[in-house]
Amino acid sequence: MWMRFSIVLIQSVVGASLAPMLSTEALADGRCSGHELLPIPRAESSCLTTRPEVYPSPDAALRALVLPADVDLYATPDMESRIVVRTREGKLLTSKDYSSPRGANGYYVFAAKWSPDSQFFVYSMSSSGGHSPWSFPMWVYSRQKNLITDFSAMIGNNPTVSGDFKFTGPHTVSATTWEKAGSDNKLSITVDLEDAIKKIIPSSD
Length: 205
Prior knowledge:
Layout: H1 2-30, E1 53-56, E2 62-68, E3 81-87, E4 92-97, E5 107-114, E6 120-127, E7 138-142, E8 147-150, E9 166-167, E10 172-178, E11 186-192, H2 193-200
Antiparallel strand pairs: 1-2, 2-3, 3-4, 5-6, 6-7, 7-8, 9-10, 10-11
């Protein structure tokens, strides 16, 4: 009887000691993703196991990574993003950082896709600080040029007003802009990325 009571007592003590640990871990998990501002700062050692989102190209030759910038402890580490493009073997091709010094004036990746022909990696972004919530800037990585360029330059410097986009051909993408400057009316626009890149970045040959 005494042994049985001792076992129950030990289980109760162990359970009580684990409860704060489990709640802390659950809290940490909730603070490590979701593009959220936090009412109290997370620990500096939190979210160390946060992994990048990896986007292999359809031909498996390249890999685009979306890495959490992890600047502000009052925000989840994915509140701002850094883009890295590497070869399958791991060679760095290019990168672009969208974080801000204070962690609240940058951007995080909203959606990202490779073109079906593996020549372009396209991603849309959302503001980390909530400024211009109607705007979802889009960027395009060109495999041939090995650079990242602003999609807005391909559509007359107009903004993209939705984070959603889709490919309608091997390198043709459809996105959403405004009908005219300041208008609430949205307009679907389709861009051949191959042609657009040639126009804004002439060949050096």
